[in-house]
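Hey, resending since the last one bounced:
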Amino acid sequence: MNLSHIEAFCAVADLGSVSEAARQLECNRTKLSMAIKALERELDIELLVRTGNHVSLSEAGKAIYKDCESMLVTAERIKQTCSQASGEFNAEIWIARDDSLPDDLWQDLAHRLNNKYPATSFNIVLASSGDLSNLVETKQVDFAFGVDYERLDDPRINYNPLGKIRMMSVCRSGHPLTKLRRVSDEVLRNEMQASMAYLNEKDNPELQPFSLRYIGFSSFDYMLNTILQEDAWGVMPEPLIRHLLRKEELAVIKHTYGLTQEDYCMFSAAGMAEHPGMAWLNDKLSDYLFDF
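The structure tokens again:
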């Protein structure tokens, strides 16, 4: 069974379009269609149902999709293991992170990481929490760190929880919401919200705005500025706002979901050989979250 045929099948199944799958795999549309037809001939069954420009899984396609996806993950793991065994370690690593933890913490860890592993170049980029998993899945970065909202059962991604992070629904002290003994859903929906925005096309209900009026940002820092300056409310990570709560510049909203906990995770591709620097970084972030 040809792995390139299975990859073509999974890509079309994921995207529902031969054209989109060909664009993602950077190959000719005709070649992609021929690969799927070859797989169907080999298995002697129709895997995809074509309706106009849309493509969906047949019953047989649905039945084998997970197994095909697992085969691709296993093949990638084998390649990674062989690369590791032959000593081909990454000389350059790309890391995405959200800004749920303070910038000065990340700057300190980045400098220490660079000094501890001088043979490796580390590139650390800022991204929305909602995009972290997708950036790893699409191989735009090697590893990602941040709040895990998705909790998807995806065999292509490893989710390694490093600790819990408390998320707080807050507004500026003096905001009308702070004068209410209990804030109802209806009241909160009518207040301006600073919410999390992301580019990942997968639906993520955890990140959908609660209010009818909202402005979205990919950064918690921008959300915080809007909460302080524009009389908005928003859900913020405690490590970024504890000092403002202590100074009584921010207040926690007395709402049912005013305080929640989320996992802070490292995201990596299944089969990715873990660089020793990532193990070191995991330990430092885990220690920080435990002490916090």
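The longest strand covers residues 157-172.

Sorry for the duplicate.
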